[in-house]
Write a structure and sequence with these properties.
The structure is a single chain. Helices cover about 25% and strands about 25% of the residues. It is α/β, with parallel strands linked by helices. It is globular. It starts with a helix and ends in a 6-residue tail after the last strand.
């Protein structure tokens, strides 16, 4: 899987992964992050998710990163907001009040360009990446957000029954990626109604990753 895969998906409007409603698990478990008003939330591989509008409505500031500029253009159009656009290191920066979306390769986004982050909502990033990229991704997100707490959603199913994305991620894999940087708590495991993409039985797991006591911000 390469960057062209996602560009083709957006160009062809093959975006079955895009939810037209706010993620119900975000609604149910966002409070577990125990954030103050005005906190800045990072949504990696954000697409044009409706979750961003909801987070803004809760008084949060939002940052995101997305490979497809088309997706970001649609995001701002659907929000009814005209962005300012500028270069920012190896990525492009779309900005509006309380909203910063960086367009480009997530691995080119630095902590300096991203800025201070209070929490991460990873609803579709870790699960979107093949196994060989997930180790690099987990370390990168931890580094550029300086171990900010995370609300993480993963899927678990028989990977032999369906090719990802989204990919199946076991509890053990979550531990491997994050145990050195976070205290990990499993908040919920819910059955995916109708199966994942209607093809196989799956569960969606909700994780709370909080900064380990020996990790300074």
């Amino acid at each position: 899987m390469d960057t062209d895969f996602w560009h083709r998906k957006w160009q062809a409007n093959e975006i079955g992964f895009h939810n037209k409603e706010v993620n119900p698990l975000l609604l149910a478990y966002f409070a577990e992050l125990s954030l103050s008003p005005g906190s800045r939330i990072f949504v990696p591989l954000c697409g044009k998710t409706r979750d961003i509008a909801w987070l803004l409505s809760q008084g949060c500031r939002v940052a995101g990163v997305e490979l497809s500029e088309l997706a970001v253009e649609q995001l701002f159009a659907e929000l009814g907001v005209q962005p300012a656009i500028a270069g920012a290191g190896g990525v492009k920066h779309y900005s509006a009040p309380d909203l910063d979306i960086f367009v480009g390769d997530i691995f080119k986004l630095t902590g300096e360009v991203l800025g201070s982050i209070d929490a991460v909502f990873d609803r579709a990033a870790l699960v979107a990446l093949p196994e060989e990229m997930r180790v690099r991704y987990a370390g990168h997100i931890t580094a550029i957000t300086r171990n900010a707490p995370q609300l993480l959603l993963t899927f678990e199913y028989d990977q032999a029954a369906m090719a990802g994305p989204p990919f199946s991620i076991s509890d053990d894999e979550v531990e491997r990626h994050y145990q050195d940087s976070y205290q990990i708590a499993a908040l919920a495991s819910v059955d995916v109604a109708g199966g994942l993409k209607g093809k196989c039985v799956a569960t969606e797991n909700v994780w709370l990753l909080k900064r380990s006591e020996d990790q300074s911000p």
